[in-house]
Structures are given as structure tokens and as C-alpha cells.
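INTERNAL TRANSFER SHEET
From: sequence group
To: structure group
Subject: phosphoglycolate phosphatase

Please process the attached sequence and return the structure record in the designated field. Keep the field labels unchanged so the import script can parse them.
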Amino acid sequence: MNYKTYLFDFDYTLADSSRGIVKCFRIVLTRHQYLTVTDEAIKRTIGKTLEESFSILTGITDPEQLESFRQEYRLEADVHMNVNTRLFPDTLSTLKGLKKRGARVGIISTKYRFRILSYLEEYLPKDFLDIVVGGEDVKAPKPSPEGVLFALEHLGSTPEETLYIGDSTVDAETARNAEVDFAGVLNGMTTAEELRNYPHKIIMQNLGELVQ
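Return from structure group:
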């Protein structure tokens, strides 16, 4: 595959932050006496907004209560998230390989941009990434195409020369809505069968297949 622009999801695509995510959800859920939610259930919500995830896990639909949970989670994430996040083994070599080809590389995530950047500054040179669009940068979260379209405009890229890489059906929907090609990677909780229900160029076992 030879695209000019590669846009990546973050959680379960570039990095495994599930340990930190589960820990933060567990603290908030336990505080409010939601004691029966499993780690598996929490992991299945990764990639959705925090409000969506808390609603799925608790059944709560009241926007104010969900917003309160989100704020509590964010405070816990400031403490627990980055120290419990690990890049996948082929993340850095893949990103550097794509840049070496002259490609533009960015991240589109529901995770906060500042948290992604603060984590990656240990691993990547400053200004290595051409763009990072986080949850605080858009009005409508994925699968809205807003983040991807913003990135394309910022980078001067066209949909035809862009590949979006993610691990979830939310990512696949995002790519479809933005009318860009999609590559699925099986780093997360979503199966190949689930991803194949959406338009895709490839379903990969790992990110290294992008630069083979």
C-alpha cells in the first residue's frame, strides 16, 4: 500500500492503554457502587467517548451524571493512564518507516490530544507527527468524520491518498463516513469478522504489515 497520508487511531491501534483505562473506569464505577462490571465489558467500550462508555456500562442516560463520571475519570487518568500505557512492539518502526517514505502521519482519537502528546514525547522526536486530533478538538466524536476531515484540510491531503488505520468498528465507520480507505488491525477486542463487515483495504495482524 502506498498512500501519502496515514491517520491512526491511538488506543488498541498504536498503544495498549487498556490497563490504565480499566483502572480508571474501575475506580469511578466502584466509587458509585457499580461493582459487577467486568474488565472485559470495559475493554469492549474502548474507542467510544467516555460518556458513551459509562452509559453502556451502567445503563445511565442522564447527561449531567455521565458528564460528572467523565470528569471523575479524567482526574484519575491524570494519575494512572500514561504509566499504564505501552506501545505495541511494531508501532515506532512502522511510524518511522512511513515517514522515511515521505508520508504524512497523524493520529485521530477520542483520547485527549494533550495526553497522547505527553505520552509520545518520550518516544518520538518533537514535531514528528504531522497532526494529532483528540477528543477535545471536535464537536462530534467518531464515527463522525469531523476529525479525519479536519486533518485532511490541515494537511492538504485528499481522501483518495489517505488511509485510516484502527482496531474497532467505530474506526471502520469513521473511515467510511470520511470516504477514506480503511485498514483494520487486530490489536484490540474487535474480531476480523466484525471488521470485515465494513469497507476495508486490509485486515492486519499487526501494524508492521503497513511497511512490508
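Handover comment: The chain has nine helices and eight strands. The radius of gyration is 17 Å.
Transfer complete.
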